[in-house]
Amino acid sequence: MIASSIARKVLLRSTANCIHHRFTCPPKSLFSTSEIGYDENLVQTKVNGGTATLTLSRPPVNSLSLELCQSISGAVNFLETQYPNLQGVVIKSSNPSVFSAGLDLMELHNPDRERLSKFWISFQNVFVSLYGTRLATVAAIEGHATAGGCMLALCCDYRVMVSSTSYKSAKQEPRIGLNETLLGMAAPQWMIDQMIRTVGFREAELALSKGLLYTPEHAFDVGLVDSLVARGDAVSEAHAELQKFTNIPPLARYATKMGCRQKYLDEFHSSRTEDLERFSSYVLNETVQANISAYLKQLKQKKH
């Protein structure tokens, strides 16, 4: 009886791994996500039984540089391949005030063309790794999750956010949203589509156009986050929600996840080259560069 149970678990693991490969692995190309190494100064992982915690740690605000993007994808792939019994991961920040502030604008400001291409490919790979992982994923959002930081949260299966009532003033409250237009930029089509799938067309259209950053309560009302908790409880609540996912038989859970998501991953893979070309051309546009320069200047003035 025990041998039969073990054999059944091994078979389920093996089948799940085959399904994971079939669903998410495109042909080898410059877009390969096969690397499983990561910089532990930027991303830390901690495994506890069948679940893990992945901590973003690029002070001060986890801005997404080439190296951080590579480390996020590498850490996810590492957990998937090195821990075959692992079923889920909570993604959190080492800074309770900021989940992630989005793309590192220094990667976009007067960029080297070769590095710019590598950077965008690494950002695309983050989407592929997180959105298509066999692992159940829960985002513990204790602070701001803006632009690309919001994308990280949108990739997860469930999002827990700290409520506004935990703060004494509105200035301290965390915000979440795709606010690229406020920086004089536009979100790529696949992020626009991700937002539409999450909150609906009209809500997404208005939010994206205005660069809206949602309060936790507003985000919950429109379905951008799934639950609100008191300050200090986000990580524990995220693990509690993760446990609900991991209680589901993994083969059924992952097959259902891909049943919902595979179409969009296929569409993404078919247009990656065009997306890279559009992004590079857009960022190198003189007007966009002027907008980035002006925004960076504003940030510098605020610090002084």
What does this structure look like?
- By secondary structure, the protein is an alpha/beta fold.
- The protein is built from eleven helices and nine strands.
- The strands form two sheets. A six-stranded mixed β-sheet has the order 1-2-3-5-7-9, with helices on both faces. A three-stranded parallel β-sheet has the order 4-6-8.
- Strand 1 and strand 2 form a beta hairpin.
Q: Regions with pLDDT < 50 over 5+ consecutive residues? A: 1-12, 24-29
Provide the residue-averaged pLDDT: 90
* Share in helix: 40-55%
Order of helices and strands: HEEHEEHEEHEEHHHEHHHH
Q: What oligomeric arrangement do these chains adopt?
A: single chain
Q: How many strands?
A: 9
Main sheet properties: 6 strands, mixed
Based on secondary structure, the structural category is alpha/beta
Q: Gist?
A:
It is built from 11 helices and 9 strands. The chain has a 6-stranded mixed sheet with strand order 1-2-3-5-7-9, with helices on both faces.
Keywords:
single chain; 304 residues; alpha/beta; 6-stranded mixed sheet; 52% helix; disordered N terminus
